[in-house]
Design brief:
Layout lengths: L8 E8 L4 E3 L8 E3 L16 E7 L6 E6 L13 E9 L2 E2 L4 E6 L11 E4 L5 E7 L3 E7 L1 H4 L4 E2 L3 E5 L5 E8 L1 E2 L1 E9 L10 E6 L5 E5 L5 E7 L2 E8 L3 E3 L6 E5 L3 E10 L6
Parallel strand pairs: 6-14, 16-23
Antiparallel strand pairs: 1-2, 1-3, 1-4, 4-5, 6-7, 6-10, 8-9, 8-11, 11-13, 12-15, 16-19, 17-18, 17-20, 20-22, 21-23
């Protein structure tokens, strides 16, 4: 019999019904619970479900995703130490200190996604990510916003954790000069950009993104982009990107200037 794990955080990722499933926050289910000193926890719900997909995150051990049936039956969830991923961030052979690395699950299917892990590099550019779940493939890169002020970017690399207790060496990750995107967000009715509106850019390779507050003239500049495909998403209240529900898809292979993205007013829905 294993030892009970106290103060583990249990969060709901999805629920199962007789027919179908649903993911995300649901207001009639406890979103989180914490295990007591005996390792026990309960998730309350007020509508019929047959099972739940839970992420169990204990202190100092690897998180685990588990699907449990609902009802009076008592389940046991076993947690382990997980694996460790080590590496070193360099640029032109020199260590890159005080950068933030981001690790996320390569599979992005609902119910299979662990929370992202972020950790900084030390003075020697080294980092160690502990308690990583075994049996998964991960995307690893430096966070864009931590390298953009230096004009650097990293490619996305893939690492695999096979066994608990394993030490995975990601090796040297090369931070290289990134490309730059400059442009403007304009409103088709000629109005200035309202205060506190934003534009973001994210790579199709993972969850990382940069976010900027737009000035009244809509000018923006994103530095430190690795070559690849990106989605540019302006967020201006009352407006939407012309001919698109999902922003603007961009292929960044070199610096790009004078991009103009036009937003049209959103027509009010008829009552």
């Amino acid at each position: 019999m294993g030892k009970p794990v106290r103060e583990a955080l249990i969060s709901q990722q999805g629920v199962l019904f007789e027919q179908g499933r649903r993911f995300g926050d649901i207001d009639w289910i406890d979103l989180v619970a914490v295990s007591n000193r005996e390792g026990e926890f309960e998730i309350a719900y007020s509508k019929p479900v047959t099972g739940m997909i839970l992420e169990v995150t204990p202190r100092g051990m690897a998180p685990v995703l588990t699907t449990l049936t609902t009802g009076a039956e008592r389940h046991t969830v076993v947690v382990t130490e997980g694996a460790t991923i080590r590496g070193c961030l360099v640029s032109n052979g020199k260590p890159v200190a005080n950068a933030e690395m981001i690790l996320n699950t390569h599979s992005r299917y609902s119910g299979t996604i662990f929370k992202d892990v972020r950790i900084g590099t030390n003075e020697d550019g080294e980092f160690a990510i502990t308690n990583v779940p075994a049996g998964r493939i991960w995307d690893l890169a430096a966070r864009m916003e931590s390298l953009a002020p230096r004009g650097l970017a990293t490619p996305n690399i893939y690492v695999e954790t096979k066994d608990d207790g394993e030490e995975v060496n990601a090796g040297e990750i090369e931070a290289r000069p990134g490309v730059v995107l400059r442009g403007r967000i304009v409103l088709s009715d000629g109005a200035p950009i309202p205060a506190d509106m934003r534009v973001s850019i994210g790579s199709d390779r993972g969850v990382d993104r940069q976010v900027l507050v737009l000035p009244p003239d809509g000018a923006f500049e994103f530095k430190g982009l690795d070559k690849g495909v990106y989605a540019l998403q302006p967020s201006v209240k009352g407006y939407r990107v012309r001919n698109s529900e999902f922003g603007v898809e961009l292929l960044m292979q070199a610096n790009r200037d004078n991009l103009v993205v036009t937003l049209d007013p959103v027509k009010p829905q008829a009552k």
